[in-house]
Amino acid sequence: MERKSFQEDRLMPRKLLLIVNPAAGRGAYRKEFADALKLLYEGGVIPTVCFTAGRGDATELTKTLGPEFDLLACVGGDGTLSEVMSGLMRLQDPPPLGYLPMGTSNDVASTLDLPKNNPVAASRRILEGTPHPYDVGGFGEKDYFAYIAAFGAFTEVSYATPQNQKKLLGHLAYVLQGAALLPKIEVYPTRVEYDDGVVEANLVYGSMSNSTSVAGIVRLPEEMVSLGDGLSELVLVKDPGSLAALSELADSVLSRRFDSDKLLILHTKKARFSFEKPVPWTRDGEDGGSHQQLELCNHAAPIRLIF
Question: For the structural domain made of 15-129, what CATH number should be given?
């Protein structure tokens, strides 16, 4: 049976909480924001708009105000979406979530094929789309991630790249910053315990994700990723032995060739990473702190994401 959209369903949510990060996407949302609100209103929802002023605000707004609304949506980048999902994870019965992507990389939007930096088109998708089950990652004991937790080669790029370069150069800023970090790649003796076994290896990269897009550059095959199946993709890159070999491996991954014996892509509900010393992590493109041991898990479909 074909699912009905919000616009067609007689039980369509009426009250919408719209959380806006005014700093995302160079503030471009302003150009069409009024038109987007008008479209949502004419589509049968009454939007209440809240603006974030700093890190963590989206989570607090979601936790505090979310239960009062039938539908929630956010305007911003992957970081804003991550904060909103973290807030939803703290609600007993979270409302469906829509997304108006306005960031630099928009990995989740790429995975979902949502219109980027176009509030009107994204609002239309909220009205016409369907809520789908969406897995959320657990990061340690109390934190969450929307689409990726990672360490190692190039993971610093997303938050180490200066904000002014992101605004001016977009994806090119990530590429340039990544090239600058290439000679500094570290090797991490690592033990990874996951559902089906254990991997002990010298790694240059590791991640657990629920996305076909990483940093707006690397794309995993769509058939490899299911967003609501209760499994995450565990990606481990072993030390290739030289910068030349690492560069060759990077070229292969960018070209969507995943047949190297230095690259493992597994599916798991949980993974425990153990290192010889604390290792820096990123969580949805933001600094996730340094950890000598870290447990990640997949929370199976606690959120309904509209696309």
Answer: 3.40.50.10330
